[in-house]
Design goal:
- This protein has 6 helices and 4 strands.
- It has 143 residues and is mainly alpha-helical.
- The chain has 2 domains: 69 residues, P-loop containing nucleotide triphosphate hydrolases (Rossmann fold, 3-Layer(aba) Sandwich), CATH 3.40.50; 74 residues, P-loop containing nucleotide triphosphate hydrolases (Rossmann fold, 3-Layer(aba) Sandwich), CATH 3.40.50.300.
- The strands form 2 sheets. Strands 1-2 form a two-stranded parallel sheet. A two-stranded parallel ribbon has the order 3-4.
- Helix 2 runs parallel beside helix 3.
- The chain is globular.
- The relative contact order is 0.13.
Length: 143
């Protein structure tokens, strides 16, 4: 399995992108293209990236292939995000140092029909991983 982490990709492949609506769309498009190439090569790919707009997620999913892709919503209340904030981004947004932060002063459109929804307040990381693995196994076995 391979993981495509949005933060890591923004320091390399997507370092030329900012956080405008257009740049966010391009970020998701590029990540989707890399994921598609990796899936085409036979890899299992987990994409961990903020993709705030439904249309961008749909474009990526269509490009990768609906039968080879599923959406996981990590459902975390804003207050929990603020409490967990390892990079201090919410504190910086609150202080006005950051503009256009997803979920703060920029929109986040929840997936209309995620394949899996994980409520992080009530589901452990281990249980969430098991849920994702089970869904993946069902997907590849056509059940």
């Amino acid at each position: 399995m391979s993981v495509l982490d949005g933060d890591e990709l923004r320091t390399g492949l997507n370092c030329d992108l900012g956080f405008s609506r257009e740049d966010r769309a391009e970020n998701v498009r590029r990540i989707g293209e890399v994921a598609r190439l990796m899936v085409d090569a036979g890899l299992i790919v987990l994409v961990s990236a903020i993709s705030p707009y439904q249309v961008d997620r749909e474009v990526a999913r269509c490009r990768i292939g609906d039968h080879r892709c599923f959406t996981v919503l990590i459902d975390t209340p804003l207050q929990t995000c603020i409490e967990r904030d390892p990079k201090g981004l919410y504190a910086r947004a609150r202080a006005g140092e950051i503009k256009g932060m997803t979920g703060w002063d920029d929109p986040y459109e929840s997936p209309c029909a995620p394949d899996i929804s994980i409520a992080t307040k009530s589901v452990s990381a281990e249980a969430a991983a098991q849920q994702i693995e089970q869904h993946y196994r069902q997907l590849i076995h056509g059940h």
